[in-house]
């Protein structure tokens, strides 16, 4: 179990820092854009495309972080009424579904990144495929975090 926990701990900390920095940058960027637009009547063009990339990073890395903490969406009121064995089975199914979802995101975004790699994000000039690299990283993290939870469930079951 330690073989996956240590890398996931490191990955969790990196994602947390990147998500926090992205949120701080987004707040700063939006304030800058609003001040420039309404105070100086000179709205910068680059604010919106950068803000979109930051929102994607915040949302998807935040989702991965919540998976690691076990705080993703669930039907807790139903699951808590099940016996312990039923709760374990439902948790296992839940993590298998999260892994399947992460694989679907990974494959879909990999195809989109490949398809759009020669296109450019207007104003920024960056490759359009960059938008899809963020979900690819997040899906890998979600799969790793869910696998860690599955291994923990399996280890508890065999104790």
UniProtKB/TrEMBL annotation:
Its main location: membrane. GO terms for biological process: C4-dicarboxylate transport. Part of the tripartite ATP-independent periplasmic (TRAP) transport system. The gene is yiaM. It comes from Paraburkholderia caffeinitolerans. Signal peptide: none annotated. InterPro entries: DctQ, TRAP_DctQ. This is TRAP transporter small permease protein. The complex comprises the extracytoplasmic solute receptor protein and the two transmembrane proteins. Residues 26-154 form the Tripartite ATP-independent periplasmic transporters DctQ component domain. The keyword Transport applies. One of its GO terms (molecular function) is transmembrane transporter activity. Keywords: Cell inner membrane, Cell membrane, Membrane, Transmembrane, Transmembrane helix, Transport. It is a multi-pass membrane protein.
């Amino acid at each position: 179990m330690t073989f996956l926990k240590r890398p996931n701990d490191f990955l969790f900390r990196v994602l947390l820092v990147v998500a926090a920095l992205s949120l701080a940058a987004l707040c700063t960027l939006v304030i800058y854009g609003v001040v420039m637009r309404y105070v100086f009547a000179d709205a910068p063009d680059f604010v919106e495309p950068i803000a979109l990339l930051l929102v994607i990073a915040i949302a998807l890395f935040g989702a991965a972080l919540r998976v690691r903490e076990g705080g993703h969406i669930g039907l807790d009121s139903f699951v808590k009424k099940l016996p312990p064995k039923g709760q374990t089975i439902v948790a296992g199914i839940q993590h298998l579904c999260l892994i399947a979802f992460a694989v679907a995101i990974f494959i879909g975004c990999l195809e989109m990144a490949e398809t759009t790699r020669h296109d450019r994000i207007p104003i920024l000039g960056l490759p359009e495929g960059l938008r899809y690299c963020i979900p690819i990283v997040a899906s890998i993290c979600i799969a790793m975090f869910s696998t860690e939870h599955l291994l923990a469930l399996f280890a508890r079951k065999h104790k």
